[in-house]
Amino acid sequence: MTNSGHISERSTGGADAVPRAHVLSVDVEDYFQVEAFAGHVARESWERWPSRVVENTQRVLDLFEAHQARGTFFFVGWVAARFPNLVREAQARGHEIACHSYSHRTVYRLTPKEFREDTHRAKRVIEDACGTAVQGYRAPSWSITKDCLWALDILAEEGFTYDSSIYPIHHDLYGVPGAKRFPYTHDCANGLPLREFPPATLRFAGTNFPVAGGGYLRIFPSAYTELAFRKFESMRERVVVYLHPWELDPEQPRIRAPLKSRLRHYTNLGRMKSRVETILGRDKFLRFCDVLEEERCAPALRQESHAELAAAAAIGLAESEGTQG
Ligand SMILES: [Zn+2]
Predict the structure, then answer these.
(1) Closest CA to 226 of 279, 280, 167, 182
(2) Centroid of ligand 1 to alpha carbon of 28 (angstroms)
(3) How high is the pLDDT of residue 302?
(4) Per the structure, how many domains does the chain have?
(5) Per-residue model confidence (pLDDT) at position 11
(6) Which residue has the higher pLDDT, 161 or 297?
(7) Ligand 1 mean position to 118 CA, how many Å?
């Protein structure tokens, strides 16, 4: 199964663009399930680790509620299976429920068959918990890369209408450096459309840099995050913010792992709450399903530009040079 690679880019910079709100997303996983520790915490041992995901996710829910912010919660299926009440609580408090795989394995290490099985299982268990159809997917560790674009076809076939897994940056573990920075639509090989919402990046000297999510939100100076919001707002684009419940838990048990992994996971955990509060205090935030609904009501938001199609087809995913951030 291959992805056709036909990409169309939304044009939002016109005078008809509606006022922007940003997007808030949470990848609901426990502290011991992250990729940085995958070599040190066997999946078979997950049951034995003291879980903190319920309390940590409720911390996120309280924070969002205090700022009247709504977001999309991408649940790991393993978490949803064990804590279905947490899924229901997030939904009851006004948030969208979406899928973050079942076993939190990177997509590029799976075969298409394994990916389909993992995704199908996750979608079923999450939908059983929340009682509504799940339409959004985010890969563990942004692991849909150029080597596994077939995953997009499978997502569309499994009933997903959007994805938020392709990080348009260089990174040692993930990313598609040439990918577009703003929402676009994959025309999958099976003829189904799949909307893509990339996490936010800033562009300097022809290179994309990650911003306003996870470790980049915790570790980089607040002024850098603020710059991203101002740039995006000047372009009438949305910042896709993401965070993890464990990032609001400075007291979590420490896992023995190489220095690089520990730095990525533990740096500035104590500052994350105030970083998130700053963002929540400055802007309005939506769920991905709200954005899709806005696009349905205002088709101009999804207006297709064919200028980049040739370049996009060359690599499957291409950067639009029309807007610079
Ligand atoms: Zn994750």
Answers:
(1) 279
(2) 7
(3) 63
(4) 1
(5) 40
(6) 161
(7) 14
State in Å: Cα 7 to ligand 1 middle: 26
Tell me the per-residue pLDDT of 177-205, one tens digit each, with 9 for 90 and over.
Answer: 889 999 999 998 889 999 999 999 999 99
What token pair was written down for 242? 């993401």
In terms of residue numbers, what domain contains 85? Answer: 20-324
281 C-alpha to ligand 1 centroid (Å): 25
- In angstroms, rounded to a whole number, what is the distance separating the alpha carbons of residues 157 and 146? 19
Q: How far is the CA of 270 from the centre of ligand 1 (A)?
A: 20
- Does residue 247 lie in a domain region? yes
Name residues whose C-beta falls within 8 Å of residue 59's C-beta, 6 or more positions apart in sequence: 245, 248, 249
Task: State the distance from the centre of ligand 1 to the C-alpha of 242, rounded, in angstroms.
Answer: 10
Please indicate, yes or no, if residue 15 is contained in any of the structural domains.
no
The one-letter amino acid code at 264 reads R
Distance 145 CA to ligand 1 centre (A): 15
Taking the model in full, what pTM does it have? 0.88
The percent of the chain in helix, strand and coil, each rounded to the nearest 5, is: 45, 15, 40
Q: What region, left, alpha or beta, does residue 65 occupy, with left being phi > 0 and alpha being psi -120 to 50 degrees?
A: alpha
Residue 66's CB is within 10 A of a number of other CB atoms, namely: 11
User: How many Å lie between the centroid of ligand 1 and the Cα of residue 194?
Assistant: 21
Q: What is the pLDDT of residues 1-14, one digit of tens each?
A: 334 343 333 444 44
Give the distance (Å) from ligand 1 centre to CA of residue 320: 27
Cite the beta strand spans of 161-238 per DSSP E. 162-163, 184-187, 193-196, 201-204, 207-210
Q: Is the pLDDT score of 17 beyond 50?
A: no
Domain-located, residue 26 = yes
What's the CA-to-centroid distance between 126 and ligand 1, angstroms? 15
In a domain, 126, yes or no: yes
Spacing, Cα 215 to ligand 1 middle (Å): 12
What CATH number does residue 174 fall under? 3.20.20.370
